[in-house]
Structure formats: structure tokens, C-alpha cells
Amino acid sequence: MPNWSGIYTRAVGGLKFDPEQPGNLQWGNTTAVLTPRYKAAYLVKLYQVGALGNQWDQLSDCLPAGVPRFLTEPFLMEFVVTPRQTWWIREQVSEIRRHYTDGRGHIPAQNADPLWDGDTVGFWDHNTLVSHTLYVTHGQYQRLNPDYSTETSLVERMFKNKKGQIQDDVTVWDPKGLEKPWHVVNYYKPVTTPNVRINYWSCDANNNVIRTPT
User: Fold this and answer.
1) Nearest to 70 by CA among 137, 144, 25, 164
2) Which of 25, 80, 91, 180 is the most exposed place for a label (fewest CB within 10 A)?
3) pLDDT tens digit string along 13-27?
4) Which residues neighbour 203 within 8 Å (Cβ) at sequence distance 6 or greater?
5) Which pLDDT score is estimated for 162?
6) pLDDT given at position 201
7) Are 89 and 77 in contact (CB under 8 A)?
8) Per-residue model confidence as pLDDT tens digits over 31-42
9) How, if at all, do strands 119-125 and 128-134 pair?
10) Cα angle, residue 153 at apex, residues 151 and 156 outer, rounded to 5°
11) Which of 151, 143, 129, 119 is nearest to 69 (CA)?
């Protein structure tokens, strides 16, 4: 199995789901090709943030980031690679994605419910982890980014590149939200601080967000 040990953090992109997206997020120039319905909803979101200063974020309610937003969070992360599963652990609320590589298929559709991190199965192509994710919960790609639906699915190809970073080539399908698949590449660099550890982040103990009537 490849050696992905150590602690990582997102290398580039800030809060943009696509690190290659140009300009300010508030301009709405996302590289996603949105359906008319989701484009209209996105413009309303940007107006509410820009003109009214209102923005709801499930992280403020101590909820998980969920997939695919999970890919963009800037917090510390760790990979645990085994022949049958690869765990992708994030410091924020100790959120864990499990990539099953033991030959199992997806949960049968008749038994499936939307899950924060979806249901992910895959296989190893030499040192590249290839995975497919279904059954996600509706959410947003990140703050000031568009929304995605429960019909969203992802294909990822993850490997350690020549810079020692974990590179994740991601293609997102969403028949409700996207006119065509959205391909992005995210990078996660090693953290070089000595003795750094993943700690449990108790959101309730640190949350200073107040929800107003409006």
C-alpha cells in the first residue's frame, strides 16, 4: 500500500471548491456550469450575503461539512490506508470518510438514505485510489459557492504526486445542479510542524455564532 502517513492541510484554493476559479467568490464567476434553477438560487445567495450580510453555514450549527464540501475545508487531515479501507479523517468535528476497497458495491438504492459523507467504494490502480461516491446530503460546495443536490455523485482519483502532496482529481455529476460534469483538482500538502496531532474539535465548546431572526 502507498505511504500516505503524516498530517496534511489543503494546499491551495482557499474556500473555492475549484482552486482554478478566478476572481472573488462574491462575483459569482464559478467554473461550474449550473442549471438555470441552481444558477438563480446561487445569485440569490450572493445577493443575500453582499446586500444583506446574511449567510447560513451548517458548520455554525456544529454539523459536518459533508461531501463534496469535505474536500475544501482548510483544517488538519490524516489518511489511514489499509487494504480493505482508506480513512480520510478531518479535524473539524472529527469527520471521517471511509473509502471501501474490499470489493463491496454501493448500498442498494432501495436501502439507501442521504448521508453527510455519502457511500464511497473504490479500488487501487497501482498507487492511485479510484473511488465513487453516491447518496450525499444536499449542501453547498463551500461558503459563497453553489449548492448541490442529493443526486450528486463523485469520481475521485487520489495519489501522492512528485511534490509529496496528495492530489485529488475530482469529477462531480449532479443532474439537478450541473449542466455538465464539473472537474476540479485539489491538493493537500504535508504539515511540517513537529509533533502536530489531529485533535477532537468540540464545536459546541468553541462556537460563538448567534442565529438572528433574519
Assistant:
1) 137
2) 180
3) 888 999 998 887 777
4) 59, 62, 92, 93
5) 96
6) 77
7) yes
8) 999 999 999 999
9) antiparallel
10) 170
11) 143
